[in-house]
Amino acid sequence: MITFLAVATAVAILVVAALALAVFLRVLFWLLLLPFKLAFWLLAAPFLIVKFLVLTIGGVVLFGVLALIAVIAGLALAVAVALPLLPFFLIAVTAWTVVRLMKRPAAA
């Protein structure tokens, strides 16, 4: 008569054997494919380096262009703010000059 313990033991042995087979097949699979994977990365490495350099140089150039645009926008903002205030500035400078000249003693 087969007992429950015998069945459980047999199932456990089968599960362990299946897991061991799966691990063995996975190791075998990677041992067969590893040379191809290494060759792929060996062939891809120069392209990855070129991609890195192109993206880095492109980023630096783009940063320079954006910085130039920011400076131009700042100057445009300063002109846009200062231009409407220019008449007030001219009136203030004229008044200051008139008051300064009026404080001088008259030439005899």
Produce the secondary structure layout.
Elements: H1 4-102
How would you characterize the overall build of this protein?
This protein is mostly helical and 108 residues long. Helices cover 92% and strands 0% of the residues. The protein has one helix and no strands. The radius of gyration is 42 Å and the shape is rod-shaped. The termini are far apart.
Which percent range describes the beta-strand content?
under 5%
How many strands, which pairing sense, and closed or not: the largest β-sheet? none
Helix content, binned percent: over 70%
Secondary-structure element string? H
* Low-confidence segments: none
How far apart are the termini? 142 Å
Question: Could you say which overall geometry the principal axes of the C-alpha atoms support?
Answer: rod-shaped
Q: Please give the count of helices.
A: 1
Mean pLDDT metric: 92
Radius of gyration: 42 Å
Count of DSSP strands: 0
Name some characteristics of this structure.
single chain, mainly alpha, 108 residues, 0% strand
Care to give the gist of this entry?
The protein is mainly alpha-helical and 108 residues long. Helices cover 92% and strands 0% of the residues.
